From TrEMBL:
Protein source organism: Mesorhizobium retamae
Descriptive protein name: Alkaline phosphatase family protein
Gene3D superfamilies: Alkaline Phosphatase, subunit A
Keywords: Hydrolase, Metal-binding
TM stretches of this protein: none
Domain Sulfatase N-terminal, first and last residues per copy: 5-384
Length: 515
Protein backbone atom coordinates (compact mmCIF):
# COMPACT_ATOMS: atom_id res chain seq x y z
CA UNK A 1 0.00 0.00 0.00
CA UNK A 2 1.46 3.30 -1.08
CA UNK A 3 -0.51 5.47 1.31
CA UNK A 4 -2.04 5.14 4.71
CA UNK A 5 -4.69 2.42 4.66
CA UNK A 6 -8.38 2.68 5.49
CA UNK A 7 -10.17 1.17 8.48
CA UNK A 8 -13.84 0.12 8.48
CA UNK A 9 -15.24 -1.13 11.80
CA UNK A 10 -18.83 -2.33 11.35
CA UNK A 11 -21.02 -3.20 14.30
CA UNK A 12 -24.52 -4.65 13.92
CA UNK A 13 -26.53 -4.32 17.13
CA UNK A 14 -27.69 -7.51 18.86
CA UNK A 15 -26.44 -10.04 16.25
CA UNK A 16 -26.02 -13.60 17.58
CA UNK A 17 -22.74 -15.37 16.95
CA UNK A 18 -24.41 -18.45 15.47
CA UNK A 19 -26.45 -16.47 12.93
CA UNK A 20 -24.31 -16.83 9.82
CA UNK A 21 -25.13 -19.15 6.95
CA UNK A 22 -21.39 -19.90 6.74
CA UNK A 23 -21.79 -21.64 10.11
CA UNK A 24 -24.66 -23.76 8.81
CA UNK A 25 -27.56 -21.92 10.40
CA UNK A 26 -30.78 -23.45 9.00
CA UNK A 27 -32.62 -20.14 8.52
CA UNK A 28 -30.12 -17.28 8.27
CA UNK A 29 -28.83 -16.23 4.86
CA UNK A 30 -25.71 -14.01 4.92
CA UNK A 31 -24.07 -14.39 1.49
CA UNK A 32 -22.14 -11.12 1.70
CA UNK A 33 -20.71 -11.72 5.15
CA UNK A 34 -19.94 -15.30 4.14
CA UNK A 35 -18.03 -14.00 1.09
CA UNK A 36 -16.12 -11.55 3.28
CA UNK A 37 -15.18 -14.43 5.58
CA UNK A 38 -14.08 -16.51 2.59
CA UNK A 39 -11.65 -13.73 1.69
CA UNK A 40 -10.71 -13.04 5.27
CA UNK A 41 -11.19 -14.91 8.53
CA UNK A 42 -14.16 -16.07 10.60
CA UNK A 43 -13.77 -16.24 14.38
CA UNK A 44 -16.10 -18.92 15.77
CA UNK A 45 -15.58 -18.37 19.50
CA UNK A 46 -15.82 -14.62 19.82
CA UNK A 47 -17.46 -13.16 22.93
CA UNK A 48 -18.58 -9.74 24.07
CA UNK A 49 -17.40 -8.35 27.37
CA UNK A 50 -20.64 -7.05 28.85
CA UNK A 51 -24.18 -6.00 28.15
CA UNK A 52 -26.32 -3.94 27.35
CA UNK A 53 -25.47 -1.58 24.48
CA UNK A 54 -23.55 1.26 26.13
CA UNK A 55 -21.29 -0.92 28.29
CA UNK A 56 -20.60 -3.42 25.51
CA UNK A 57 -19.68 -0.68 23.02
CA UNK A 58 -17.46 0.90 25.64
CA UNK A 59 -15.49 -2.35 25.96
CA UNK A 60 -15.34 -2.69 22.17
CA UNK A 61 -14.04 0.85 21.64
CA UNK A 62 -11.77 1.20 24.70
CA UNK A 63 -10.38 -2.34 24.84
CA UNK A 64 -11.26 -2.45 28.55
CA UNK A 65 -13.13 -4.98 30.61
CA UNK A 66 -16.19 -3.68 32.44
CA UNK A 67 -14.29 -4.04 35.74
CA UNK A 68 -11.91 -1.35 34.46
CA UNK A 69 -14.06 1.11 32.49
CA UNK A 70 -16.99 0.80 34.95
CA UNK A 71 -19.61 2.23 32.57
CA UNK A 72 -21.90 -0.66 33.48
CA UNK A 73 -25.35 0.51 32.40
CA UNK A 74 -26.85 2.59 29.61
CA UNK A 75 -26.44 5.92 31.33
CA UNK A 76 -23.49 5.13 33.61
CA UNK A 77 -20.93 7.87 32.88
CA UNK A 78 -17.72 6.87 31.14
CA UNK A 79 -14.72 8.28 32.99
CA UNK A 80 -13.10 10.86 30.70
CA UNK A 81 -9.61 9.61 31.57
CA UNK A 82 -10.01 6.50 29.39
CA UNK A 83 -8.67 6.56 25.86
CA UNK A 84 -10.38 4.75 22.98
CA UNK A 85 -9.82 3.59 19.41
CA UNK A 86 -10.82 6.96 17.92
CA UNK A 87 -8.50 9.02 20.13
CA UNK A 88 -5.63 6.64 19.42
CA UNK A 89 -6.25 6.66 15.65
CA UNK A 90 -6.16 10.45 15.64
CA UNK A 91 -2.51 10.18 16.74
CA UNK A 92 -1.82 8.72 13.30
CA UNK A 93 -3.62 11.55 11.52
CA UNK A 94 -7.01 9.89 11.06
CA UNK A 95 -10.31 11.66 11.68
CA UNK A 96 -12.51 8.72 12.75
CA UNK A 97 -16.06 9.16 11.48
CA UNK A 98 -19.15 7.71 13.11
CA UNK A 99 -22.21 6.53 11.21
CA UNK A 100 -24.78 5.43 13.77
CA UNK A 101 -24.14 5.62 17.49
CA UNK A 102 -21.78 4.66 20.31
CA UNK A 103 -24.23 5.00 23.25
CA UNK A 104 -21.68 6.86 25.34
CA UNK A 105 -22.64 8.53 28.62
CA UNK A 106 -20.64 11.69 29.26
CA UNK A 107 -18.52 12.21 32.36
CA UNK A 108 -20.66 14.76 34.33
CA UNK A 109 -17.60 16.14 36.11
CA UNK A 110 -16.38 17.73 32.89
CA UNK A 111 -19.52 19.51 31.70
CA UNK A 112 -21.97 22.05 33.10
CA UNK A 113 -25.05 20.64 34.84
CA UNK A 114 -27.23 22.18 32.11
CA UNK A 115 -25.29 20.58 29.26
CA UNK A 116 -27.66 18.52 27.05
CA UNK A 117 -25.20 15.62 27.08
CA UNK A 118 -26.34 14.94 30.64
CA UNK A 119 -29.87 14.25 29.41
CA UNK A 120 -28.96 11.25 27.24
CA UNK A 121 -26.84 8.10 27.33
CA UNK A 122 -26.40 8.34 23.57
CA UNK A 123 -23.63 10.89 23.21
CA UNK A 124 -20.77 10.28 20.77
CA UNK A 125 -17.60 8.79 22.19
CA UNK A 126 -14.77 11.36 22.27
CA UNK A 127 -12.52 11.26 19.23
CA UNK A 128 -15.23 10.40 16.72
CA UNK A 129 -16.62 12.96 14.32
CA UNK A 130 -20.36 12.37 13.89
CA UNK A 131 -20.71 12.10 10.13
CA UNK A 132 -24.25 10.85 10.78
CA UNK A 133 -25.30 10.42 14.39
CA UNK A 134 -28.36 8.18 14.50
CA UNK A 135 -29.27 7.52 18.15
CA UNK A 136 -32.63 6.21 19.31
CA UNK A 137 -34.49 9.40 18.34
CA UNK A 138 -33.28 8.90 14.74
CA UNK A 139 -34.15 12.48 13.84
CA UNK A 140 -32.13 12.56 10.61
CA UNK A 141 -33.78 9.42 9.27
CA UNK A 142 -37.26 10.50 10.36
CA UNK A 143 -36.72 13.86 8.67
CA UNK A 144 -35.88 11.95 5.49
CA UNK A 145 -39.09 9.90 5.79
CA UNK A 146 -41.13 13.06 6.31
CA UNK A 147 -39.53 14.58 3.22
CA UNK A 148 -40.59 11.48 1.30
CA UNK A 149 -44.20 12.08 2.32
CA UNK A 150 -44.69 9.64 5.18
CA UNK A 151 -47.24 10.60 7.82
CA UNK A 152 -45.43 10.43 11.17
CA UNK A 153 -47.25 12.79 13.52
CA UNK A 154 -45.63 11.20 16.59
CA UNK A 155 -42.14 10.96 15.08
CA UNK A 156 -39.93 8.30 16.65
CA UNK A 157 -42.82 6.85 18.65
CA UNK A 158 -44.56 5.83 15.45
CA UNK A 159 -41.82 5.02 13.01
CA UNK A 160 -41.81 1.32 13.94
CA UNK A 161 -45.57 0.87 14.09
CA UNK A 162 -46.84 -2.07 12.02
CA UNK A 163 -48.39 -1.31 8.66
CA UNK A 164 -52.09 -0.61 9.02
CA UNK A 165 -54.75 -2.71 7.27
CA UNK A 166 -52.19 -5.37 6.37
CA UNK A 167 -53.72 -8.71 5.37
CA UNK A 168 -51.75 -11.14 7.53
CA UNK A 169 -52.12 -14.85 6.69
CA UNK A 170 -53.30 -17.09 9.54
CA UNK A 171 -50.07 -19.10 9.47
CA UNK A 172 -47.95 -16.00 10.17
CA UNK A 173 -47.48 -14.26 13.49
CA UNK A 174 -47.85 -10.61 14.43
CA UNK A 175 -44.24 -9.82 13.55
CA UNK A 176 -44.91 -10.78 9.94
CA UNK A 177 -46.68 -7.43 9.56
CA UNK A 178 -44.10 -5.10 7.94
CA UNK A 179 -43.12 -1.50 8.56
CA UNK A 180 -45.02 1.35 6.93
CA UNK A 181 -42.06 1.93 4.60
CA UNK A 182 -40.38 -0.46 2.13
CA UNK A 183 -36.81 -1.70 2.49
CA UNK A 184 -35.31 1.06 0.35
CA UNK A 185 -36.48 3.61 2.93
CA UNK A 186 -35.39 1.79 6.10
CA UNK A 187 -32.90 3.17 8.61
CA UNK A 188 -30.33 0.62 7.38
CA UNK A 189 -30.74 1.82 3.79
CA UNK A 190 -30.65 5.48 4.86
CA UNK A 191 -27.45 5.01 6.85
CA UNK A 192 -25.77 3.01 4.09
CA UNK A 193 -26.72 5.59 1.45
CA UNK A 194 -25.15 8.33 3.59
CA UNK A 195 -21.98 6.30 4.12
CA UNK A 196 -21.55 5.60 0.40
CA UNK A 197 -22.03 9.29 -0.35
CA UNK A 198 -19.39 10.13 2.27
CA UNK A 199 -16.99 7.61 0.73
CA UNK A 200 -17.49 9.02 -2.78
CA UNK A 201 -15.32 12.08 -2.02
CA UNK A 202 -12.63 10.19 -0.11
CA UNK A 203 -11.17 7.93 -2.76
CA UNK A 204 -7.79 9.64 -2.67
CA UNK A 205 -7.41 10.13 1.09
CA UNK A 206 -7.21 7.59 3.91
CA UNK A 207 -10.22 7.27 6.19
CA UNK A 208 -11.36 5.55 9.37
CA UNK A 209 -15.07 4.83 9.79
CA UNK A 210 -17.14 3.20 12.52
CA UNK A 211 -20.41 2.12 10.92
CA UNK A 212 -23.22 0.95 13.23
CA UNK A 213 -26.36 -0.85 12.09
CA UNK A 214 -29.32 -0.71 14.50
CA UNK A 215 -30.56 -4.06 13.20
CA UNK A 216 -31.26 -6.81 14.09
CA UNK A 217 -31.95 -5.05 17.43
CA UNK A 218 -35.68 -4.97 18.27
CA UNK A 219 -38.35 -3.94 17.65
CA UNK A 220 -38.68 -7.13 15.63
CA UNK A 221 -40.41 -5.55 12.68
CA UNK A 222 -38.94 -5.73 9.19
CA UNK A 223 -39.71 -3.85 5.98
CA UNK A 224 -40.99 -5.75 2.99
CA UNK A 225 -39.65 -8.06 1.60
CA UNK A 226 -37.50 -8.97 4.63
CA UNK A 227 -40.58 -9.67 6.77
CA UNK A 228 -41.16 -12.74 4.57
CA UNK A 229 -37.55 -13.92 4.19
CA UNK A 230 -38.04 -16.88 6.55
CA UNK A 231 -41.15 -19.03 6.95
CA UNK A 232 -41.90 -19.42 10.67
CA UNK A 233 -42.85 -23.05 10.02
CA UNK A 234 -39.19 -23.70 9.20
CA UNK A 235 -37.91 -22.14 12.43
CA UNK A 236 -36.86 -24.35 15.32
CA UNK A 237 -38.28 -23.45 18.71
CA UNK A 238 -35.74 -22.21 21.25
CA UNK A 239 -34.26 -24.51 23.88
CA UNK A 240 -35.97 -23.87 27.19
CA UNK A 241 -37.31 -25.53 30.32
CA UNK A 242 -40.70 -27.32 30.12
CA UNK A 243 -42.37 -24.46 31.92
CA UNK A 244 -41.69 -20.87 32.89
CA UNK A 245 -41.81 -21.87 36.56
CA UNK A 246 -39.15 -24.53 35.97
CA UNK A 247 -37.00 -21.96 34.16
CA UNK A 248 -37.19 -19.44 36.98
CA UNK A 249 -35.97 -22.02 39.48
CA UNK A 250 -32.49 -22.02 37.94
CA UNK A 251 -31.50 -18.70 39.53
CA UNK A 252 -33.06 -15.63 41.21
CA UNK A 253 -31.48 -13.27 38.69
CA UNK A 254 -32.99 -15.25 35.78
CA UNK A 255 -36.40 -15.15 37.46
CA UNK A 256 -36.06 -11.39 37.89
CA UNK A 257 -35.11 -10.92 34.22
CA UNK A 258 -37.98 -13.07 32.96
CA UNK A 259 -40.43 -11.05 35.03
CA UNK A 260 -38.87 -7.81 33.78
CA UNK A 261 -39.48 -8.58 30.09
CA UNK A 262 -42.87 -10.26 30.65
CA UNK A 263 -44.70 -7.08 29.72
CA UNK A 264 -46.05 -6.27 26.23
CA UNK A 265 -43.73 -3.72 24.65
CA UNK A 266 -41.02 -3.99 27.32
CA UNK A 267 -38.76 -5.92 24.95
CA UNK A 268 -40.43 -5.56 21.55
CA UNK A 269 -41.80 -2.08 20.91
CA UNK A 270 -45.49 -1.89 19.87
CA UNK A 271 -45.93 -5.64 20.37
CA UNK A 272 -49.34 -6.49 21.87
CA UNK A 273 -48.18 -9.63 23.67
CA UNK A 274 -45.77 -10.76 26.35
CA UNK A 275 -42.86 -12.51 24.55
CA UNK A 276 -42.05 -14.78 27.50
CA UNK A 277 -45.46 -16.47 27.45
CA UNK A 278 -46.21 -16.08 23.72
CA UNK A 279 -47.56 -19.05 21.80
CA UNK A 280 -45.41 -21.15 19.48
CA UNK A 281 -46.44 -19.40 16.25
CA UNK A 282 -45.56 -15.99 17.66
CA UNK A 283 -42.20 -17.24 18.95
CA UNK A 284 -41.35 -18.81 15.60
CA UNK A 285 -42.40 -15.60 13.82
CA UNK A 286 -40.32 -13.37 16.09
CA UNK A 287 -37.29 -15.52 15.41
CA UNK A 288 -38.06 -15.57 11.67
CA UNK A 289 -38.33 -11.77 11.57
CA UNK A 290 -35.04 -11.47 13.47
CA UNK A 291 -33.40 -13.60 10.77
CA UNK A 292 -35.01 -11.40 8.12
CA UNK A 293 -33.47 -8.31 9.74
CA UNK A 294 -30.08 -10.01 9.56
CA UNK A 295 -30.66 -10.60 5.85
CA UNK A 296 -31.34 -6.88 5.46
CA UNK A 297 -28.10 -5.96 7.23
CA UNK A 298 -26.20 -8.43 5.07
CA UNK A 299 -27.65 -6.84 1.92
CA UNK A 300 -26.35 -3.41 2.88
CA UNK A 301 -23.04 -4.87 3.97
CA UNK A 302 -22.81 -6.20 0.42
CA UNK A 303 -23.45 -2.73 -1.00
CA UNK A 304 -20.58 -1.30 1.05
CA UNK A 305 -18.17 -4.05 0.02
CA UNK A 306 -19.13 -3.72 -3.64
CA UNK A 307 -18.45 0.03 -3.49
CA UNK A 308 -15.01 -0.59 -2.00
CA UNK A 309 -14.21 -3.06 -4.76
CA UNK A 310 -15.40 -0.77 -7.54
CA UNK A 311 -13.36 2.15 -6.24
CA UNK A 312 -10.20 0.10 -5.67
CA UNK A 313 -10.33 0.64 -1.90
CA UNK A 314 -11.13 -2.96 -0.97
CA UNK A 315 -7.50 -4.03 -1.02
CA UNK A 316 -6.32 -1.15 1.14
CA UNK A 317 -9.06 -1.34 3.78
CA UNK A 318 -9.08 -3.37 6.99
CA UNK A 319 -12.69 -4.54 7.43
CA UNK A 320 -13.98 -5.72 10.80
CA UNK A 321 -17.60 -6.89 11.17
CA UNK A 322 -18.94 -7.76 14.61
CA UNK A 323 -21.68 -6.97 17.14
CA UNK A 324 -21.88 -5.37 20.55
CA UNK A 325 -23.84 -8.16 22.25
CA UNK A 326 -26.17 -10.93 21.14
CA UNK A 327 -29.83 -11.94 21.64
CA UNK A 328 -31.51 -14.76 23.57
CA UNK A 329 -34.33 -15.22 21.00
CA UNK A 330 -36.55 -17.05 23.46
CA UNK A 331 -33.92 -19.45 24.79
CA UNK A 332 -34.61 -20.12 28.47
CA UNK A 333 -37.85 -18.17 27.83
CA UNK A 334 -35.66 -15.03 27.72
CA UNK A 335 -35.52 -12.25 25.13
CA UNK A 336 -32.89 -9.56 24.79
CA UNK A 337 -29.39 -9.74 26.21
CA UNK A 338 -29.38 -9.10 29.94
CA UNK A 339 -28.76 -12.58 31.27
CA UNK A 340 -25.70 -14.81 31.72
CA UNK A 341 -26.21 -17.38 28.93
CA UNK A 342 -23.93 -17.69 25.89
CA UNK A 343 -26.86 -16.64 23.72
CA UNK A 344 -26.41 -13.08 25.01
CA UNK A 345 -22.61 -12.92 24.77
CA UNK A 346 -21.49 -15.06 21.79
CA UNK A 347 -20.88 -12.69 18.86
CA UNK A 348 -20.03 -12.85 15.16
CA UNK A 349 -16.58 -11.65 14.10
CA UNK A 350 -15.25 -11.52 10.55
CA UNK A 351 -12.04 -9.67 9.70
CA UNK A 352 -10.47 -9.13 6.31
CA UNK A 353 -6.86 -8.00 6.35
CA UNK A 354 -6.01 -6.97 2.76
CA UNK A 355 -2.25 -7.26 3.18
CA UNK A 356 -0.24 -10.10 1.70
CA UNK A 357 0.80 -11.29 5.17
CA UNK A 358 -2.75 -12.59 5.61
CA UNK A 359 -2.94 -14.41 2.26
CA UNK A 360 -1.97 -17.80 3.64
CA UNK A 361 -4.84 -17.92 6.11
CA UNK A 362 -7.64 -16.48 3.95
CA UNK A 363 -10.91 -18.34 4.18
CA UNK A 364 -10.02 -20.11 7.39
CA UNK A 365 -11.93 -20.18 10.66
CA UNK A 366 -10.45 -19.64 14.09
CA UNK A 367 -11.45 -21.87 17.00
CA UNK A 368 -9.37 -19.96 19.55
CA UNK A 369 -11.23 -17.79 22.05
CA UNK A 370 -11.36 -14.10 21.16
CA UNK A 371 -12.97 -11.16 22.93
CA UNK A 372 -14.43 -7.78 22.05
CA UNK A 373 -11.52 -6.08 23.82
CA UNK A 374 -9.23 -7.55 21.14
CA UNK A 375 -10.65 -5.33 18.39
CA UNK A 376 -8.99 -2.08 19.49
CA UNK A 377 -5.45 -3.51 19.85
CA UNK A 378 -5.88 -5.36 16.53
CA UNK A 379 -6.70 -2.17 14.64
CA UNK A 380 -3.93 -0.22 16.37
CA UNK A 381 -1.41 -2.97 15.63
CA UNK A 382 -2.50 -3.02 11.99
CA UNK A 383 -1.95 0.74 11.81
CA UNK A 384 1.46 0.46 13.46
CA UNK A 385 0.29 2.22 16.62
CA UNK A 386 1.15 1.28 20.18
CA UNK A 387 -1.45 -0.43 22.34
CA UNK A 388 -2.24 1.60 25.48
CA UNK A 389 -0.93 -0.01 28.64
CA UNK A 390 -4.43 -0.14 30.15
CA UNK A 391 -5.91 -2.10 27.24
CA UNK A 392 -7.12 -5.58 28.26
CA UNK A 393 -7.27 -7.10 24.80
CA UNK A 394 -4.67 -8.64 22.50
CA UNK A 395 -3.97 -8.08 18.82
CA UNK A 396 -5.49 -10.68 16.51
CA UNK A 397 -2.95 -10.06 13.74
CA UNK A 398 -1.00 -13.26 14.50
CA UNK A 399 -4.22 -15.26 14.12
CA UNK A 400 -4.99 -13.41 10.88
CA UNK A 401 -1.59 -14.56 9.59
CA UNK A 402 -2.45 -18.16 10.45
CA UNK A 403 -0.36 -18.26 13.62
CA UNK A 404 -1.46 -19.06 17.16
CA UNK A 405 0.72 -17.70 19.93
CA UNK A 406 1.66 -20.38 22.47
CA UNK A 407 0.36 -18.22 25.32
CA UNK A 408 -3.05 -17.53 23.79
CA UNK A 409 -6.01 -17.54 26.19
CA UNK A 410 -7.85 -20.80 26.86
CA UNK A 411 -11.02 -19.14 28.16
CA UNK A 412 -13.05 -15.95 27.89
CA UNK A 413 -14.13 -13.53 30.60
CA UNK A 414 -17.26 -11.39 30.60
CA UNK A 415 -19.41 -9.45 33.06
CA UNK A 416 -22.80 -7.86 33.58
CA UNK A 417 -23.91 -5.05 35.87
CA UNK A 418 -27.69 -5.25 36.32
CA UNK A 419 -28.26 -2.52 38.92
CA UNK A 420 -31.20 -0.16 38.46
CA UNK A 421 -29.96 3.08 39.97
CA UNK A 422 -33.03 5.21 39.27
CA UNK A 423 -35.81 2.75 40.16
CA UNK A 424 -33.99 0.30 42.49
CA UNK A 425 -36.17 -2.45 41.02
CA UNK A 426 -33.45 -5.09 40.79
CA UNK A 427 -32.11 -4.22 44.22
CA UNK A 428 -35.54 -4.39 45.88
CA UNK A 429 -36.60 -7.57 44.08
CA UNK A 430 -33.41 -9.47 44.84
CA UNK A 431 -32.75 -7.99 48.27
CA UNK A 432 -29.23 -6.80 47.47
CA UNK A 433 -27.47 -3.45 47.10
CA UNK A 434 -26.67 -1.68 43.84
CA UNK A 435 -22.99 -2.54 44.12
CA UNK A 436 -23.93 -6.21 44.54
CA UNK A 437 -25.96 -6.30 41.32
CA UNK A 438 -23.28 -7.84 39.16
CA UNK A 439 -21.70 -11.09 38.09
CA UNK A 440 -18.57 -12.22 36.27
CA UNK A 441 -18.18 -15.26 34.03
CA UNK A 442 -15.22 -17.37 33.07
CA UNK A 443 -15.86 -19.83 30.26
CA UNK A 444 -13.60 -22.38 28.62
CA UNK A 445 -14.36 -25.26 26.26
CA UNK A 446 -15.76 -27.45 29.04
CA UNK A 447 -17.05 -25.38 31.93
CA UNK A 448 -18.75 -22.06 32.44
CA UNK A 449 -18.65 -20.53 35.91
CA UNK A 450 -20.86 -17.55 36.84
CA UNK A 451 -19.93 -15.76 40.06
CA UNK A 452 -22.43 -13.33 41.56
CA UNK A 453 -21.46 -10.71 44.10
CA UNK A 454 -24.34 -11.57 46.45
CA UNK A 455 -26.32 -14.39 44.85
CA UNK A 456 -25.61 -18.13 44.40
CA UNK A 457 -23.02 -19.11 41.76
CA UNK A 458 -23.67 -21.19 38.66
CA UNK A 459 -21.61 -23.89 36.96
CA UNK A 460 -22.45 -25.48 33.61
CA UNK A 461 -20.80 -28.42 31.86
CA UNK A 462 -20.98 -27.16 28.27
CA UNK A 463 -20.03 -30.52 26.76
CA UNK A 464 -22.76 -32.50 28.50
CA UNK A 465 -25.18 -29.58 28.70
CA UNK A 466 -24.63 -27.13 25.80
CA UNK A 467 -27.91 -25.31 26.46
CA UNK A 468 -26.92 -24.46 30.05
CA UNK A 469 -29.95 -26.06 31.66
CA UNK A 470 -28.43 -27.74 34.73
CA UNK A 471 -26.57 -25.85 37.44
CA UNK A 472 -23.83 -27.99 38.99
CA UNK A 473 -22.39 -25.42 41.38
CA UNK A 474 -24.02 -26.83 44.52
CA UNK A 475 -23.20 -30.50 43.85
CA UNK A 476 -20.57 -31.89 46.26
CA UNK A 477 -18.78 -33.83 43.52
CA UNK A 478 -18.26 -30.58 41.58
CA UNK A 479 -16.72 -28.64 44.47
CA UNK A 480 -13.16 -29.00 43.13
CA UNK A 481 -14.26 -27.75 39.70
CA UNK A 482 -16.03 -24.76 41.24
CA UNK A 483 -12.90 -23.98 43.26
CA UNK A 484 -10.65 -24.25 40.20
CA UNK A 485 -12.93 -21.97 38.16
CA UNK A 486 -13.23 -19.44 40.98
CA UNK A 487 -9.45 -19.37 41.40
CA UNK A 488 -8.97 -18.90 37.67
CA UNK A 489 -11.45 -16.02 37.67
CA UNK A 490 -9.63 -14.41 40.60
CA UNK A 491 -6.32 -14.80 38.78
CA UNK A 492 -7.87 -13.23 35.68
CA UNK A 493 -9.19 -10.24 37.60
CA UNK A 494 -5.91 -9.72 39.47
CA UNK A 495 -3.95 -9.81 36.21
CA UNK A 496 -6.25 -7.39 34.41
CA UNK A 497 -6.97 -4.92 37.20
CA UNK A 498 -6.45 -1.30 36.09
CA UNK A 499 -2.73 -0.95 35.39
CA UNK A 500 -2.03 2.25 33.46
CA UNK A 501 0.86 3.29 35.73
CA UNK A 502 1.68 0.00 37.46
CA UNK A 503 4.78 -0.80 35.39
CA UNK A 504 6.33 2.57 36.13
CA UNK A 505 8.61 3.41 39.01
CA UNK A 506 9.85 6.79 40.15
CA UNK A 507 13.54 6.51 41.04
CA UNK A 508 16.33 8.97 41.80
CA UNK A 509 17.34 8.53 38.16
CA UNK A 510 13.88 9.36 36.89
CA UNK A 511 10.98 7.25 35.66
CA UNK A 512 11.63 3.60 34.89
CA UNK A 513 8.98 2.12 32.59
CA UNK A 514 8.52 -1.47 31.46
CA UNK A 515 6.27 -2.59 28.57
Amino acid sequence: MTRRPNVLLICADQWRGDCLSALGHPNVRTPNLDALAAGGMLFKKHFGQCTPCGPSRTSLLTGLYLMNHRSGRNGTPLDARHTNIALEARKAGYRPALFGYTDTSADPRNVDANDPSLKTYESVMPGFEAALHLPDEMEEWIADLLAKGYDLPDGRAGVFRPKADFDKPDDRGFRYIPTIYPAEHSEAAFLTDAFLKWLSVRRDSPWFAHFVFLRPHPPLIAPEPYNATVDPADVVLPARAPSLADEKRQHPMLAYELDRVSVPGAYDEHSPFDPVSANELEIRQMRATYYGLIAEVDHHLGRIIEHLKQTGEYDRTLIVVTSDHAEMLGEHHAWGKEVYFDGAFHLPLVIRDPRTAADGARGSTVDAFTEAVDIMPTILDWLGLEKPRACDGRSLLPLLRGEKPVDWRDAVFFEHDFRTVATQKAETTLGITSDQCNYAVIRDNRYKYVHFAALPPLLFDLVADPHETTNLADRPEMASTVLRCAQKMLDWRLTHAERTLTNMMITQNGVVSRP
